[in-house]
């Protein structure tokens, strides 16, 4: 009986998970109703209106439709913006973890997951995220340890 030959290629990715909020739901509430467990993609918000408030604005988008439904908090936007620009494979997604609440406008609780193939970038992002947490005591940010996992290419 012949043996099948399989070749797998693996690469390590590094994940940093932190809990925060999606801001701006008071603006998008007529267009989007968050669902528990829904995952949104974070990427640079290129709109002129966004740049007037935050030159490093990072929007949260519904992946299937590319519809903008919120923003990363301004306190975290520069860090997330820089992380996404550092390497084209870097990704940040946010999963809705609760119902909307009133803060600075309506916000949606979420768990953010930053993923990179670079251990160095992951470690730097983790370090800078902890600095932001210390500087922004008014924000509820909880950070999990950076972890690595193999992914099949």
Topology:
Elements: E1 10-23, H1 25-28, E2 39-44, H2 48-53, E3 58-62, E4 67-71, H3 74-86, E5 91-96, E6 101-103, E7 105-116, H4 119-135, E8 142-143, E9 147-152
Antiparallel strand pairs: 1-7, 1-8, 1-9, 2-3, 2-5, 3-4, 5-7, 6-7
Short key terms for the protein model shown above:
nine-stranded antiparallel sheet; 153 residues; alpha+beta
How far apart, in Å, are the first and last alpha carbons? Answer: 29 Å
Rg (C-alpha, Å): 17 Å
Helical fraction: 25-40%
Percent of residues in beta strands: 35-45%
Q: Which outline best applies? A: globular
Question: How many β-strands, per DSSP?
Answer: 9
Average pLDDT rating: 91
Biggest sheet: strands, sense, closure?
9 strands, antiparallel
Please report the number of helical segments. 4
| SSE class | alpha+beta
**N-to-C SSE series?**
EHEHEEHEEEHEE
Descriptive notes:
The two termini are 29 Å apart. With 153 residues, this protein is an alpha+beta fold. The protein has helices spanning 25-28, 48-53, 74-86, 119-135, and strands at residues 10-23, 39-44, 58-62, 67-71, 91-96, 101-103, 105-116, 142-143, 147-152. Strand 3 and strand 4 form a beta hairpin. It contains four helices and nine strands, in the order E-H-E-H-E-E-H-E-E-E-H-E-E. Strands 1, 2, 3, 4, 5, 6, 7, 8 and 9 form a nine-stranded antiparallel β-sheet that branches.
């Amino acid at each position: 009986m012949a043996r099948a030959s399989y070749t797998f290629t693996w690469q390590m990715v590094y994940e940093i998970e932190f809990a925060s909020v999606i801001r701006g739901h008071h603006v998008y509430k007529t267009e989007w109703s968050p669902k528990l467990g829904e995952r949104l993609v974070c990427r640079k918000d290129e709109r002129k209106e966004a740049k007037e408030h935050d030159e490093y604005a990072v929007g949260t988008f519904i992946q299937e439709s590319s519809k903008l439904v919120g923003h990363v908090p301004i306190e975290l936007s520069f860090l997330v913006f820089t992380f996404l620009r550092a390497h084209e494979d870097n990704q940040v997604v946010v999963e809705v973890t609760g119902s909307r609440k009133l803060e600075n406008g309506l916000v949606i609780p979420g768990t953010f997951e930053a993923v990179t193939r670079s251990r160095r970038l992951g470690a730097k992002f983790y370090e800078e995220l902890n600095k932001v947490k210390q500087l922004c005591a008014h924000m509820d940010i909880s950070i999990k340890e950076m972890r690595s996992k193999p992914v099949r290419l």
